[in-house]
Each structure stands twice: as structure tokens, then as C-alpha cells.
Amino acid sequence: MGLQVPKRSGALRRSLRVALLGVTMLVLAGCSEADTRQIRNLAMPDRATEQGPYTYELWKWAWVAAMITGVIVWGLIAYVVVKFRRRSDDEVPRQTRYNLPLEVFYTIAPVLMCIVFFFHTVRVQDVMTELEDTPDLTVEVVGYQWQWGFNHGIGEQNPDAFGDDGDFAYEEYVYTTGDASEIPTLVLPVDQRIQFNLHSPDVIHNFGVPSFLTRMDVIPGRVNKLQVTPTVEGTYAGKCYELCGVYHSRMLFQVEIVSQAEYEAYLAELAEAGQTSEEPLLGGANATTQTGLGESQSQEGSEE
Ligand SMILES: [Cu+2]
């Protein structure tokens, strides 16, 4: 005996249909321009560098591959659900074991897919981590608990400098950093290949700008290097991506990509404000000389 389901009245069906239509319209109307952009970008930010599109393409095609796999799997599930459904209460399905060709297929296919994913991941990673011998300029970045400092070189860059202790690319620097009331701004010239030398005097941080579609750990005791070529002028958000302590969430910064002339004017502005030094300020002992870290704060820090 089957289940006795009361037939829905026509009125109920009509009101259900109206409700469904209403919900659909509400959902569609709720899509702001930002949402539409997010959907179009597959939840990725706009690309602001030459290297960014590589990450984006990897992301996009990984989704395409996952979708194709999903559609095949869902299709097969629907097919067997319908084709092999129980047709009468006392039917016992045919019992089958082993299907060698099928088992070989579903072992080899995922392995092949992993190889393809791996190949493209390595290819993109090589682009994102590539270090050209002669970047157009080098910025010494310091991430410290809990702030960022940016040291821009003045004058000619020494292409042989390695960026480690004392071996810096410039003879003179201007610097900027944030304080408790203001986050710092990293100003960069457009269309120049920029190398970031990443320093940390305390714990592991992570230097990341979503619109660059890349980021890198900032590790005490070593200098990690990252090169990007910004291509779109504008203001972007950056932050620390490694939980580094109680005020990790304050390690925000702003990135401004500007023209070469504006960049030079900015450096002159910093120099005029007296924010100059012979060597980049890299936190630690230097922290006392950085803006935003007054003497009282640094003394508190040294007592720990
Ligand atoms: Cu941090």
C-alpha cells in the first residue's frame, strides 16, 4: 500500500508559485554591483599586477575542472538512481562485484587530474616567486609586532646588494610606518618591477596584498624576497596573513600605486619630514627611532 498523500489544491500550488517567484526576485535584486563583480571575478579581487592574472587563471581553470568533474559525477549518480531504482517491494537487485575496467579508470583518472593540477600549480608558483636579478627598485619591508614599516631607497640602486645584514641596495633611505591611530601606506610606482625584502625582528608575519594575488611569509632571521610589477594605479588594502600575536588584526596597511612622478614627490615629502636614515629601519633595536614608537612605549617593550 502506498502512502496516502492528500492532493494539493490549486490555490495552494498557485500561492507557492507566487512565493517562489517573490524569493527569486528578492535574491536577484539583492545583488549589488560589488556582488556582481565578485561573481564575475569568482570571488577574487581585481588584479593590480602583471603577475596577478597567473594566480587568477589557475583559480578559474581549477574551478572549471572541478565543475566538469562535478557535472559528470552528478550525472552518473542521477543516472544510476533512476535506472537502477527499486521497481517493486520484493525485488532483490542483482549482486555484482568487481568491475576491473571501471576500477582501473577510477584509479587512473584522479591521478591524472592531480598531475595536471600539480603541473599548473608549479608553473604559476614559478612565476609568482621568480626573482629577476635587476628589479627596478627594492623596498625593505619590516613586519613587527604589530605594525609595518616601509623603507624606500634614495638614489642609485646597487644591483649586487643581497638585502641581508648591512648589505643593502641603497646608500640612503626614507621610511614610513603606522602608529596606533593610523595604518601605514606603502606607496609604489606603477609599471616598475619592485622587489620587497621582508624582515621581521620578532615572530613570523606574512606580507600580503589581496589585489597582488600573492603573499609571502616574513620570517625572523632570514630575508624573504618577493617581486611584483603593479600595473593599475589605485589604492589597495594589505595586511598580515599570519596570526602573529594579540594585535595581529591591527597589522593592516594601505597600498597606493601611483605614477613615477608622484612616487618621487612622495619620497621627497618623507625626506622633508626628516624620515631619513642611512640604513633601512628594520624594527628590533631600531624600533625606538621609528615614528609611532615613542620612548615610553619602547621602554615598556624592553622590560618584557
Ligand atoms: Cu603579523
UniProtKB/TrEMBL annotation:
Residues covered by the Cytochrome oxidase subunit II transmembrane region profile domain: 36-132
Residues covered by the Cytochrome oxidase subunit II copper A binding domain: 134-269
Ranges of Low complexity composition bias in the record: 290-304
EC annotation from Swiss-Prot or TrEMBL: 7.1.1.9
InterPro entries: CcO_II, CcO_II-like_C, Copper_CuA, Cupredoxin, Cyt_c_oxidase_su2, Cyt_c_oxidase_su2_TM_dom, Cyt_c_oxidase_su2_TM_sf
Cellular compartment(s): Membrane
Top EC category: translocase
Annotated transmembrane regions: 58-82, 103-122
Protein's job: Subunits I and II form the functional core of the enzyme complex. Electrons originating in cytochrome c are transferred via heme a and Cu(A) to the binuclear center formed by heme a3 and Cu(B).
Protein name as catalogued: cytochrome-c oxidase
Organism: Nocardioides renjunii
Gene that specifies this protein: coxB
